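Hypothesis: this fold can be encoded by more than one sequence.
Test: take the structure tokens below, design a sequence, compare later.
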């Protein structure tokens, strides 16, 4: 791997966004994901190589560390922000068709629920996994999910719920989606959601953390 890409991988793993970002302290004043992605592209490295061989594997390391409780939400947020800054430079190549996305992922927090921190993390990690993410936001009901799947018929769908009082809305939305789009793949998560609940409501996959969601999507895309 080139020197630029090795440094870029470390920026993603440790959440170094750009040169002016003070975090992490041991990388202070060094170039971050922003500058290094730009440099890598300018030096002629293909956007696909940057994404597939550097950004995505680095993000996978972050997701696995989080799953093993070796890092926590703030560190994962910094890595996701670094990834987001790198993706700003890569995105135009997706639009030109030079770089291909793995697929489309629709995500939202279910109706009645305004919590979005976990949903946003999942969304950033999945974007980091090479997917186009359509984020419907919070308080999303069946109508909005159905409209989205109509617009992106091959998309996988993700739902997040944090409240036991409104998580039954997840069941209603899964039911409505499966009735109209039986082949749709639905992934659920959020603090009160469990594997048993996922099975009960007929969703396809439950993940307790973002990396599990990334791994599931990787599996259905291949
Ligand atoms: Co609220 N809140 N809150 N809250 N809040 C909880 C969830 C609560 C457990 C606090 C408590 O009482 N101990 C409690 C729920 C109790 C219950 O239902 N059993 C609660 C309550 C009651 C409420 C209100 C009703 C309070 C009130 O007004 N009386 C109210 C509800 C508003 C509404 O939604 N209608 C409310 C409001 C709020 C704030 C607005 C103040 C704020 C939300 C800010 C925001 O999201 N923008 C807030 C917060 C911050 C919390 C706590 C403190 C933290 C939640 C969080 O962000 N966690 C929470 C208590 C706690 O958890 N300690 C609490 C961090 C986040 C990274 O974790 O979302 O679980 P989480 O996501 C994880 C995994 O679950 C997974 O990945 C993430 C990373 O590991 N994951 C997925 C999540 N979605 C996934 C989807 C997937 C896969 C994995 O696939 C699609």
């Amino acid at each position: 791997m080139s020197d630029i890409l090795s440094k870029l991988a470390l920026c993603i793993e440790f959440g170094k966004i750009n040169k002016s970002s003070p975090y992490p302290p041991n990388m202070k004043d060094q170039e971050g994901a922003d500058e290094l992605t730009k440099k890598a592209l300018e030096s002629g490295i293909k956007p696909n190589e940057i994404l597939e061989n550097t950004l995505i594997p680095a993000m996978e390391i972050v997701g696995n560390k989080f799953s093993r409780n070796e890092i926590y939400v703030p560190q994962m947020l910094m890595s996701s922000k670094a990834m987001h800054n790198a993706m700003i430079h890569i995105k135009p190549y997706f639009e030109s068709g030079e770089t291909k996305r793995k697929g489309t992922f629709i995500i939202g927090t279910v109706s009645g629920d305004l919590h979005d921190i976990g949903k946003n993390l999942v969304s950033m990690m999945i974007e980091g996994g090479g997917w186009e993410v359509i984020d419907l936001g919070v308080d999303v009901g069946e109508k909005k999910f159905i409209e989205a799947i109509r617009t992106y018929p091959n998309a996988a769908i993700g739902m997040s719920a944090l409240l036991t009082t409104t998580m039954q809305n997840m069941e209603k939305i899964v039911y409505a989606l499966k009735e109209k789009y039986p082949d749709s793949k639905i992934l659920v998560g959020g603090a009160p959601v469990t594997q048993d609940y996922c099975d009960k409501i007929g969703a396809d996959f439950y993940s307790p953390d973002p990396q599990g969601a990334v791994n599931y999507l990787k599996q259905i895309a291949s």
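The first helix runs from residue 3 to 14. DSSP finds nine helices and five strands in the chain.
Hypothesis status: open.
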